[in-house]
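User: Teach me something about this protein's shape.
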Amino acid sequence: MLVTPIGPMQRRTNEMEITRMQVLGTVHMSPRTALHWIPRCPWACFQKGDYGWFMYVCDDVGVTEAVDVPPEIRSAIHVAKREGCGWIMWDSDGPVIDEQPE
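Assistant: First, the predicted structure itself:
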């Protein structure tokens, strides 16, 4: 795929775009989800070395609310959206959050 320096929807600006990131411990993700669902996540999700993943907070509810999306992923997306986050960092040393399932 060829990436152009400035795409048709981009504009030059002096303002930086900064996004918030929710950090969650991988304890909130089941081993089954980590092994079988994450590798085929239907939106942007990138491995973070051996320690977790970076997951885009997808805003297409038709995708995030699909039957095959694990409940812990759906819950994390809901909280991230509520908190205004654009990404979730699932980290093996990340915090355990009472609001999230284990």
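Now, about its shape. Helices lie at 31-37, 61-64, 71-82. The chain has a mean pLDDT of 90. If you'd like, I can walk through any region in more detail.
User: That's plenty for now, thanks!
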